[in-house]
Amino acid sequence: MRVCGRAIRVLRIKARVVAGNRGIPEKRECLSEFWLFSKGGLEQSFQVLLFAMPSSRYAAVKVEHLSQFIADCHTRTTLADENRQADQMTQAPRQNEPWRTLASIPEPLTTERFVLEPLAPRHAVLDFAAFMSCRARLRTELQWGEWPPADFTLELNRADLGEHYEEFVRREAFAYTVLSVDRERCLGCVYLERCVEIGGCQLAYWVIDDAINREAELVDQMLRWVHQQWAIERLLLPFHQTNQRGITLARNRDLVEWDSPANGPLARHLCFLSIAGDLPV
After folding, report:
1. Is the pLDDT of residue 281 over 80?
2. pTM for the whole thing?
3. Residue 207's pLDDT is what?
4. What percent of the chain has pLDDT over 90?
5. 196 phi and psi, to 5 degrees?
6. How far apart are CA 36 and CA 7, in angstroms?
7. Does residue 113 share a domain with residue 79?
8. pLDDT at 150
9. In the sheet where 234-240 sits, what is the strand order?
10. Which residue from 208, 220, 235, 200 is spatially nearest to 109, judged by alpha carbons?
11. What is the mean pLDDT of residues 100-106?
12. Which among 90, 119, 135 is the end of a domain?
């Protein structure tokens, strides 16, 4: 069965938002929406779920209540259909279609303090060491829920990075590792995805503890790079309410606060809009 990339992406982003709250009703909502957008049979969809989620960077949703989830999906179909039109405005962008031409993808950003490279399986060791070193903070700031678990392995991470790289090759989404200039350490990651709500793209990122003092520089350089080299006029930066450091950083740059939707993946986030013409000279 072929399940569109959007279905998996919708599940992952919504799981990232709700997995921190371990209440079963919210998890049922997440899985019901996965079935709705996968347009497949329930049993097939959950097979895809079981296959897709163990190595997911976005969340580790437990499926021990699988039979109850399936029952809920049967009973919730009518309600989901009624809510679908309203909820589509807050869904993740359609990830199974390229949104950039090959010629429009610029060379990776390089500065005197860090370099970017497309995130790929060859970065697995450095990437694994980086996020595992600060996973407690990242879970809180980024609402990763239970991901990564204590028993998360290097090989699972390698498979996860393979998914990111395949998205990059298909030009659906663009994940970059942030490396030290000698390329001996991973300092964090940045993620660029289309954002249809603003007619531009969305930027998400994380940095390790030792690179927090470079976070402002990274954001400033990313804003210039995306606006100037990608030629994208409007860029959205979402920060979860728990990420006060990121929120303060955005406000210090006088970015426009964008009204976040009450539901969907950006709920409980403060979102800031960067517009190319407003960048300081």
Report:
1. no
2. 0.67
3. 98
4. 53
5. -70, -25
6. 8
7. no
8. 84
9. 115-118, 173-179, 186-195, 200-207, 234-240, 269-275, 256-258
10. 220
11. 87
12. 90
In this structure, is residue 273 part of a structural domain?
Answer: yes
Same domain, 13 and 127: no
Range of the domain at 164: 102-278
60 and 143 housed in the same domain: no
Q: Do 37 and 73 meet the contact criterion of CB atoms below 8 Å apart?
A: no
Residue 267 maps to which CATH number?
Answer: 3.40.630.30
Amino acid type, 64: E
* Domain termination site, one of 48, 68, 90: 90
The two three-digit tokens of residue 17, written as one number: 């938002």
DSSP 59: -
Highest mean pLDDT: which of 132-136, 175-179, 198-202? 175-179
Q: What is the pLDDT of residues 71-102, one digit of tens each?
A: 444 444 433 343 333 333 333 334 457 888 88
Query: Does the pLDDT of residue 257 top 90, yes or no?
Result: yes
Task: With CA atoms as reference, report the closest residue to 208 among 110, 117, 124, 135.
Answer: 135
Q: Give the C-alpha separation, 167 to 146, whole Å.
A: 24
- Which DSSP string corresponds to 205-272? EEE-GGGGGGHHHHHHHHHHIIIIIS--SEEEEEEETT-HHHHHHHHHTTPEEE---SSSTTTTEEEE
CA distance 43 to 140: 33
Total of domains in the chain: 2
